[in-house]
Specification:
Order of helices and strands: EHEHEHEHEHEHEE
Number of helices: 6
Structural class: alpha/beta
Number of domains: 1
Strand order of the largest sheet: 3-2-1-4-5-6-7-8
CATH class: Alpha Beta
CATH topology: Rossmann fold
Largest sheet: 8 strands, mixed
Helix content: 40-55%
Radius of gyration: 17 Å
Distance between the termini: 35 Å
Shape: globular
Number of strands: 8
Bound molecules: nicotinamide-adenine-dinucleotide
């Protein structure tokens, strides 16, 4: 069975939250961890805790990817696993979770969101898939959201970017069913992080570690094209199939 022992795992958005939890858990399971993030201070600290390395990479800057993947390969070996996880919401959440007027969604805000949440994944795939195919193949898990499968009235455009990732993963899985790279997505409900204020959490809300363990399972064993939903602590995660019925 596949495991992380001696394998390189690249995580985007690994400085805090879910990505940081994946870094720590995967390192415990033997992975060599590479973190790409724009948050240098926390990224370096997490990389140190995981015995890995940090690179300051803006995932939305296409030109940074090739050089950064070459640097990882030189220091840690070829990338076998990747968690494309960096993401932002369009505005800070507050407890009232009000519905924003559509005209408040300026072009600048739209582009900032698309740049990280969609371009950052596309550029990562374009740099990593040929790289993985040239070596031993690999697996990519993308962080979508529960809001990639159902509506988020307080942040519709964020929800649209996460729906795009679900469509991308399902289509890549259908396009390349026999590899050499597997593609799947984690779709979490709210979990404690800088994106999600603690006031919104209940006793059965997820912690980053709950979601991180599902990401690790997807990386090692998830089916290609799988989109896995995890909503609450005590409800098992499950694959959600696309359905027309
Ligand atoms: N927290 C939740 O409730 C929740 C629920 C569903 C999905 N998600 C998704 O989980 C992922 C991780 O979010 P989190 O909750 O751990 O939040 P977080 O803010 O702790 O982590 C996001 C990380 O992405 C990094 N990042 C932002 N822009 C970047 C860029 N241009 N280049 C590189 N790194 C960049 C940030 O610096 C941060 O370290 C996101 O994709 C988010 O949309 C979060």
């Amino acid at each position: 069975m596949a495991d992380f022992e001696g394998q390189t795992l690249l995580i985007t958005g690994g400085a805090t939250g879910l990505g940081a939890a994946v870094a720590v858990e995967a390192a415990r399971a033997g992975a060599r961890v590479a973190i790409f993030d724009v948050n240098e201070r926390d990224g370096i600290a997490v990389a140190r805790a995981a015995g890995g390395r940090f690179w300051r990479v803006d995932v939305g800057a296409a030109e940074q990817w090739a050089t950064a993947v070459d640097a990882v390969t030189a220091e840690l070996g070829p990338v076998r696993y990747a968690h494309l996880n960096a993401g932002i919401m369009s505005r800070p959440l507050d407890v009232a979770l009000s519905v924003p007027p559509i005209e408040d969604f300026t072009l600048g805000r739209y582009e900032a969101l698309r740049r990280v949440n969609i371009d950052g994944v596309m550029f990562g795939l374009q740099a990593l898939v040929p790289h993985m195919a040239r070596s031993a193949g690999g697996a990519v898990t993308i962080t979508s959201s529960m809001g990639g499968m159902m509506p988020i009235p307080f942040d519709p455009v964020y929800s649209s970017t996460k729906h795009a990732l679900v469509g991308l993963v399902r289509s890549l899985g259908a396009a390349y069913p026999s590899g050499p790279v597997r593609f799947n997505a984690i779709c979490p409900g709210g979990f404690t992080s800088d994106l999600f204020p603690p006031e919104l959490h209940g006793p059965d809300s997820l912690e980053p570690k709950d979601v991180a363990l599902e990401v690790i399972d997807l990386l090692l064993r998830g089916a290609t094209g799988e989109t896995r939903l995890i909503v609450k602590k005590d409800v098992p995660a499950r694959a959600i199939s696309p359905s027309l019925g």
